[in-house]
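Usage

Read records sequentially. Each one opens with the input sequence:
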Amino acid sequence: MRRVLVLLSLGLASMPLHYAKAESAVEPSPPAESVPEAKHVLPNEAFVRLELHFSLLTELADRSDLVPAFGYGLKGGYRWGFVGLFLQFEQDFWVGTEYEVRVTQGAYNIAVGVDFTYFEGRAHTSIAVGPSILAFNTPLDSRGSVGWFLDFRPVGFQWDVHRFVRLGLDPISFAVVAPSLDGVPLVQIEYRTTFYLETAF
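and closes with the structure output:
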């Protein structure tokens, strides 16, 4: 009987030791691997855009009677990720203020351009170049005279308001409208603000 009690006591005494060994034998699980955040990838897409622009600040060499300008434009093209090519057409109306306030037909501008989209599609920069066509007769130039047109937009902002609708604002851009280069050149420099509605597909 004494031998049984001794063996039982030894067995109970050894139980915490075995439990500690078993507990220490369990290896800690490795930390979960951190999943990298997915980068925003701009899609390939075609787009069509309707624009409205105005300019209260202009410079017109030797022609002080033409000052403010406003107009509308259509633009269409295709984007490969952050780089896009486009074709644009616009009419630029001019406001005469020398004798009385009047709106003239201004010029028709056609251009081919490239734009760069960044900040996950929320901002862009673009430049376009092409011909400018005088849309009315002036004392020195005839309607239909052809010169050149430059449209540079350093930075613009855009917001997706629907799956197929995007609103944009180019707060300040630099345009050179020069529909006549013969004799005394008709060159108007405009500092524009442009609003636009765009559909991508």
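Summary fields computed downstream for this record:
- The CA atoms of residues 75 and 117 lie 16 Å apart.
- Strands lie at 45-60, 66-80, 83-96, 102-118, 123-134, 146-162, 165-180, 186-200.
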